């Protein structure tokens, strides 16, 4: 056939569905002006307005949608069915016993979720109603943001946020550029340059902008922040002039205008079609692993319940098969009941037994769990160690449903900028021809204070070293995209180049460029400004030098370098090139490469961001050739990027190496310590960032994510251009598997510190290729699984150049892998919202990039360092507490209802309750609920300081270990054993009975009145005391509140029973329990029986605990025992490693690594001080050289780096 199915499908879609639904592009009419007649057809497409919606419910769908979500819970649906059964048929218990608790749970949950959604509505309204300035009919008018339409021309002033995605038409700057920060989108707070359309950049007023007659053709909305393809048709004399549009012309919603007075731009994507909105993940209900376990247990207990009801129903009809037992006189059945079909009677009896036994699944457990989560969340709010004085902020809990999930995290996905780092670059040193220069130590040949005690090393440069040195300083001062901003005050702090002299400061698209220019300033060369295509610098002789900027070869992540071509005042033309060492060294033909390379490698080990600087003199002929290459590439409308890359490649060659720089991206306080603790706790840490690979990689070294001996595996665009993706993946897989050999995945999964040799780096473009579904007939179908296998065997993974939605895709990929690990995502910007919402637990950081992450997260903390305590202490406690709560609730209800099941064998299966109605109702509400609620709030099985000091204790509770099926079966078996002991113990006590003279039944051995209520009360008394003592045995952390609640609840039971049976209550029609409890307690043998039965019930659990603690103690039990010996001060005296089980092979490796670290001190250790002297002038000046982290005053700079080699002279 000439036409394949895809073409046919396209045509059907086009002609049957509608034009706007199938087109791959859209046409936007600027200011809604129709094109001139005869140029093109005017087809006005429908676009959404600019309204943003992040809320989940509306006023109309809240009740049905919320009810649907709540009744998806097995427990809620079950209790609804039981409640309806109690309403429909005659059952042994009242409908109120099931309906009231269910109504309470549903109402409380609905109010909580409704309030949270109301806050989201409130935030949406604040955004949607903010004022926006629009140009209409030559005037600027104000309208609400939600009323903005595609095609409107928007007027934006400095420091305003863009209300939608815009195409830049003109700006206040003569060259038509503007500067933008995209911190809330990709995490980069640096300034980026965007360009206006060449034909419209001259329009500076409202009238001029209104006169623009043009249409824009562009692609339909897509989530990729870094891609945009379109063209603008400008009508001049009714003839269209087409100009290409790219991502450099597109201003994204959420970005902020900087260092530009104003701009005019046209709305291209609005509302939920903006790239920011497309990168938002829809907010879904998160459920914890504990809640899933509860639902699994619930299903098992439902099966037990149905089995009990079926068995009792069947046995009832077997029992009544005897004509003498079929219709005893006390049944008093009506004629209608006698005539009913046996199946209907059997079904009714089945439902009645279901209601009788339904207490095995207590709705009060869900109420208690909800209360425990809600009240327990206040311990995070009240934690003073998680209060940040600088911000004045405490940790925030946005949802308490996931508290225990904090103790189950296996993967941590973190943003870099603003999360791990402060995004505050600092210049550390530079190296020129092998000579190292450190600000404040070597500066203009002056000896700094405190340098008299420093060892001296003669590293004097040669005669022409000063010229080379100044050429290097000039190269760094000129090769950048830094802008000078006049007079700005941020947070009350005035930024300036010269303190006390100027009120200007530097801004740039890259923070390390600002750090380099500021570093040159401290070394004597100051960049002043760029004006009229000239750059001005102030040299160390206080003379202004002017350089004409001829060309700028912009930085890109593939080349990993940038260049600038300048003409100096003498007429010489220089090309200055700055970039990563891997992209500069192969292009160098001369210079002291070995010395510079040694220093670069040294600084890379230190975790510093290094750049190399080189230059080339261009003759007039060479410069003309360069101009020809660049102009030809820039005019190309197709494959422009490829042609520019080829031109740059031809220009940036035959370079002369000058030196290298080292810049530090300051980590947040204790960020490295936190990551190290997370590794020790068995968690894998992934860094997902929109930043460049080099910057992100340096941060990973500094934060100890990558260690000194980590072998880096690269899965990047650069490598996949050289090899196919298929080959690269298989090469990496072979590399990893060859290293690990026959080790099991559990051994090499990175959960221990023994095998952490590999780190993976992947970029966004390659990730897209990896996750793309394989085509039929191709071998790319299982790339994702292959990629996951590689990742599992890597101790750390760095994903750079990630779009926000790609971050969420990474999290989802790991979350849905076959191991189903628990994931946590942490970030501080709007670009992190998607992954925060996708992960099992989302944590927002109160950073400098707005509050979007905080608002959309489950928890919010002031700094990254607070994550350590939140997981290792709070998460550990929450999980321990709630797991005990769940198991204990099921246990105490098995003990409660199993005697009721056994009792039916002794009452003719007549559905007679064993316990009084008051006991049935109050058992879970009053008698046994408060002690376990308090336990689940304040229990501390291990001291918090020990949990922080020994992160490996977190592994003991990993993978939901306390709620495994073995533990569940043990608790259930214990409950059945206790129930059998209670029932038959009481039964044999009443075994020998006689009638008294007044017709009462009396036990001959105890002289106690015997009846079904007395029997049930005895069983119930033993039951309440046994389950309460069981909780007391499990309590490790005793306070006066525990004593008050545990013994107080038992006292309340006794007092209630005395009052309930000791007084004739006028509101009761009949009083079955009158005097029963007092009569029972008046018998001495009954007291003895109660004590014996309680002891017999508790004995197996006590014996099991004693034997296990003596013979097979867990790490937790060892620490508890040692802590008692040291009277709660264990963390101060004892090395905790001695309390763990002795490691096998891995321990030797850790020891050897410690020895290596001792031999090679860390960056935070005090380095060896050295000096070098130079002869720049006639006299010798001794210049202090401090190897890295010490300033001249001897104060130690706060830093966190991995181990490094000892300092050596260069």
From TrEMBL:
It catalyses: a 1,2-diacyl-sn-glycero-3-phospho-L-serine(out) + ATP + H2O = a 1,2-diacyl-sn-glycero-3-phospho-L-serine(in) + ADP + phosphate + H(+); ATP + H2O + phospholipidSide 1 = ADP + phosphate + phospholipidSide 2; a 1,2-diacyl-sn-glycero-3-phosphoethanolamine(out) + ATP + H2O = a 1,2-diacyl-sn-glycero-3-phosphoethanolamine(in) + ADP + phosphate + H(+). GO terms for cellular component: early endosome; endoplasmic reticulum membrane; plasma membrane; recycling endosome. Its cofactor is Mg(2+). Residues 1142-1164 are annotated as: Disordered. PROSITE patterns: ATPASE_E1_E2. The active site is at 415 (4-aspartylphosphate intermediate). Residues 41-98 form the P-type ATPase N-terminal domain. It is found in: Cell membrane; Early endosome; Endoplasmic reticulum membrane; Membrane. Its EC number is 7.6.2.1. ATP binds at residues 415-417, 513, 555, 578, 609, 689-691, 801, 807, 831-832. Mg(2+) binds at residues 415, 417, 828, 832. The chain crosses the membrane at residues 71-89, 297-319, 350-369, 888-906, 918-938, 968-990, 1010-1032, 1044-1068, 1074-1099. NCBIfam families: ATPase-Plipid, ATPase_P-type. Component of a P4-ATPase flippase complex which consists of a catalytic alpha subunit ATP11A and an accessory beta subunit TMEM30A. This is Phospholipid-transporting ATPase. The lineage of its organism: Eukaryota, Metazoa, Chordata, Craniata, Vertebrata. The gene is LOC106534870.
């Amino acid at each position: 056939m000439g036409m394949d199915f895809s073409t046919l499908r396209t045509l059907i879609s086009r002609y049957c569905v509608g034009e706007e639904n199938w087109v791959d592009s859209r046409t936007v009419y600027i200011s809604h002006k129709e094109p001139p007649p005869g140029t093109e057809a005017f087809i006005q497409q429908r676009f959404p307005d600019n309204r943003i919606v992040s809320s989940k419910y509306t006023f109309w769908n809240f009740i049905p949608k919320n009810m649907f979500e709540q009744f998806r819970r097995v427990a809620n649906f079950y209790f609804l069915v039981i409640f309806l059964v109690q309403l429909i048929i005659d059952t042994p218990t009242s409908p109120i016993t099931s309906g009231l608790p269910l109504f309470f749970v549903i109402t409380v949950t609905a109010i909580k979720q409704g309030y949270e959604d109301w806050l989201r509505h409130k935030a949406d309204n604040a955004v949607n109603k903010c004022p926006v300035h629009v140009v209409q009919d030559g005037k600027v008018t104000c309208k609400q943001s939600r009323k903005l339409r595609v095609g409107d021309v928007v007027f934006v002033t400095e420091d305003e946020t863009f209300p939608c995605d815009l195409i830049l038409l003109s700006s206040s700057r003569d060259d038509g550029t503007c500067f933008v920060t995209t911190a809330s989108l990709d995490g980069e707070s640096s300034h980026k340059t965007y360009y206006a359309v060449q034909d419209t950049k001259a329009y500076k007023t409202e009238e001029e902008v209104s006169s623009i007659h043009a249409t824009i053709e562009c692609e339909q909305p897509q989530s990729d922040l870094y891609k945009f393809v379109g063209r603008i048709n400008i009508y001049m004399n009714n003839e269209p002039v087409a100009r290409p549009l790219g991502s450099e012309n597109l201003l994204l919603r959420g970005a902020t205008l900087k260092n530009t007075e104003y701009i005019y731009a046209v709305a291209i994507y609005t509302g939920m079609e903006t790239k920011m909105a497309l990168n938002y993940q829809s907010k879904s209900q998160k459920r914890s692993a504990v809640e899933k376990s509860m639902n699994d247990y619930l299903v098992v207990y439902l099966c037990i319940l149905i089995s009990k009801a079926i068995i009792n129903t069947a046995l009832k009809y077997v029992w009544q098969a005897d004509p003498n037992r079929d219709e005893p006189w006390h049944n008093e059945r009506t004629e209608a009941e006698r005539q009913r079909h046996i199946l209907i009677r059997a079904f009714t009896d089945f439902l009645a037994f279901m209601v009788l036994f339904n207490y095995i699944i207590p709705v009060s457990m869900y109420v208690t769990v909800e209360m425990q989560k809600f009240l327990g969340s206040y311990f995070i709010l009240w934690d003073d160690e998680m209060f940040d004085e600088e911000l004045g902020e405490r940790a925030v809990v946005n949802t308490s449903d996931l508290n225990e999930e904090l103790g189950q995290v296996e993967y941590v996905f973190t943003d870099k900028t603003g999360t791990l780092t402060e995004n505050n670059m600092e210049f550390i040193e530079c190296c020129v021809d092998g000579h190292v220069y450190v600000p404040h130590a070597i500066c203009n040949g002056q000896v700094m204070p405190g340098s008299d005690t420093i060892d001296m090393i003669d590293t004097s440069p040669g005669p022409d070293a000063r010229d080379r040195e100044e050429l290097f300083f000039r190269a760094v001062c000129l090769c950048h995209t830094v802008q000078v901003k006049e007079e700005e005050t941020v947070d009350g702090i005035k930024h300036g180049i010269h303190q006390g002299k100027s009120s200007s400061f530097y801004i740039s698209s890259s923070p390390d460029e600002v750090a380099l220019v500021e570093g040159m300033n401290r070394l004597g060369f100051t960049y002043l400004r760029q004006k009229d295509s000239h750059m001005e610098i102030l040299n160390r002789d206080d003379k202004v030098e002017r350089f004409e900027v001829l060309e700028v070869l912009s930085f890109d992540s593939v080349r990993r370098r940038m260049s600038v071509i300048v003409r100096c005042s003498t007429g010489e033309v220089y090309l200055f090139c700055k970039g990563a060492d891997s992209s500069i060294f192969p292009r160098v033909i001369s210079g002291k490469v070995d010395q510079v390379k040694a220093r670069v490698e040294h600084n890379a080990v230190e975790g510093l961001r290094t750049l190399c600087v080189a230059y080339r003199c261009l003759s007039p002929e060479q410069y003309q050739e360069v101009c020809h290459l660049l102009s030809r590439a820039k005019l190309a409308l197709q494959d422009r990027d490829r042609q520019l890359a080829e031109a740059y490649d031809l220009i940036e060659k035959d370079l002369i190496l000058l030196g290298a720089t080292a810049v530090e991206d300051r980590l947040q306080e204790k960020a490295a310590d936190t990551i190290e603790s997370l590794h020790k706790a068995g968690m894998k840490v992934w860094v997902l960032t929109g930043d460049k690979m080099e910057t992100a990689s340096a941060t990973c070294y500094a934060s100890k994510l990558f260690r000194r001996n980590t072998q880096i595996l690269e899965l990047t665009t650069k490598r996949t251009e050289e090899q196919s993706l298929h080959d690269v993946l298989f090469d990496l897989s072979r590399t990893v598997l060859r290293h690990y050999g026959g080790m099991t995945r559990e051994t090499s999964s990175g959960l221990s510190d023994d095998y952490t040799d590999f780190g993976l780096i992947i970029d966004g473009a390659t990730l897209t290729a990896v996750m793309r579904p394989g085509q039929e007939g191709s071998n790319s179908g299982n790339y994702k699984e292959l990629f996951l296998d590689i990742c599992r065997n890597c101790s750390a993974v760095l994903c750079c150049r990630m779009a926000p939605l790609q971050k969420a895709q990474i999290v989802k990929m790991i979350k849905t892998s076959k191991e189903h690990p628990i994931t946590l995502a942490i970030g501080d910007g709007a670009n992190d919202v998607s992954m925060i919402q996708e992960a099992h637990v989302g944590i927002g950081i109160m950073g400098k990039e707005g509050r979007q992450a905080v608002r959309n997260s489950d928890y919010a903390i002031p700094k990254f360092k607070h994550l350590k305590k939140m997981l290792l202490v709070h998460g550990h406690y929450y999980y321990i507490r709630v797991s005990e709560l769940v198991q204990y609730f099921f246990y105490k209800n098995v003990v409660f209802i199993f005697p009721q099941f056994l009792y039916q064998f002794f009452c003719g299966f007549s559905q007679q309750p064993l316990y009084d109605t008051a006991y049935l109702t109050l058992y879970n509400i009053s008698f046994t609920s408060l002690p376990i609620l308090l336990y689940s709030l304040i229990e501390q099985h291990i001291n918090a300081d020990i949990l922080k000091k020994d992160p490996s204790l977190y592994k003991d509770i990993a993978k939901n270990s306390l709620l495994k099926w073995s533990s569940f079966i043990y608790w259930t078996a214990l409950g059945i054993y206790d129930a059998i002991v209670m029932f038959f113990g009481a039964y044999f006590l009443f075994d020998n009975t006689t009638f008294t003279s007044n017709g009462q039944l009396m036990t001959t051995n105890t002289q106690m009145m015997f009846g079904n209520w007395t029997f049930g009360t005895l069983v119930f008394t033993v039951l309440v005391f046994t389950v309460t003592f069981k909780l007391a045995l499990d309590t490790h952390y005793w306070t006066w509140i525990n004593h008050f609640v545990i013994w107080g609840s038992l006292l309340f039971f006794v007092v209630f029973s005395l009052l309930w049976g000791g007084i004739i209550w006028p509101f009761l029609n009949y009083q079955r329990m009158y005097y029963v409890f007092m009569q029972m307690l008046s018998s001495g043998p009954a007291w003895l029986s109660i004590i014996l039965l309680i002891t017999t019930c508790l004995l197996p659990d006590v014996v099991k605990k004693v034997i296990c603690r003596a013979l097979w103690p867990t790490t937790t039990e060892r620490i508890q025992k040692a802590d008692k010996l040291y009277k709660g001060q264990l963390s101060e005296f004892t090395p905790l490693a001695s309390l763990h089980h002795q490691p096998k092979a891995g321990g030797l490796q850790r020891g050897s690594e410690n020895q290596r670290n001792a031999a090679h001190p860390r960056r935070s250790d005090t380095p060896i001080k050295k000096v070098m002297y130079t002869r720049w002038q006639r006299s010798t000046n001794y210049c202090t050289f401090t190897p890295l982290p010490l300033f001249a005053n001897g104060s130690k700079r706060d830093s966190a780096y991995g181990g490094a080699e000892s300092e050596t002279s260069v």
